[in-house]
Amino acid sequence: MSANEDQEMELEALRSIYEGDESFRELSPVSFQYRIGENGDPKAFLIEISWTETYPQTPPIISMNAFFNNTISSAVKQSILAKLQEAVEVNLGTAMTYTLFEYAKDNKEQFMENHRPIHSATSISNIISPETPNTAPSSKKKDKKEQLSKAQKRKLADKTDHKGELPRGWNWVDVVKVFKQNWLER
Fold this sequence. Notes:
Elements: H1 3-17, E1 24-28, E2 31-36, E3 45-50, E4 61-63, H2 74-91, H3 97-106, H4 108-111, E5 127-128, H5 150-159, H6 172-185
Antiparallel strand pairs: 1-2, 2-3, 3-4, 4-5
């Protein structure tokens, strides 16, 4: 059987197996996402599997770059991807997308045992691809100047007079301090 026929058969099987499953998402006929764990679970993660042209004879591309995974450290992501890569090597030549998703579901606790949620959104590439080795590209972000929206500009203009000065008494905290001092002096 050709790789294309194998992919078509596996696609039909995945659609029938995961029909109605909110954790499964078909991004395209060759790319799938599966959320391991419930929506509110801090140890939940998302796996994306994309088939190559010659899949299942060649390994699929497994990624954890989804925004959903931003609270997972890169070390934990790399550990999960390494364990999934071992499962890929065992199942090479057979339809393995369902197997990989189920393997991840069965071993979720083991995968996430060292997980400590991080709260900074770091952009680190976490992809296993047969063509490229695992490397994290250097990302240079440009500092953006904060710009006000139309509504914010309008609100600011409404607070000031025609000269751009704030009206008398705009800082009510100072007014309260004065009243408090006068009250205490009596």
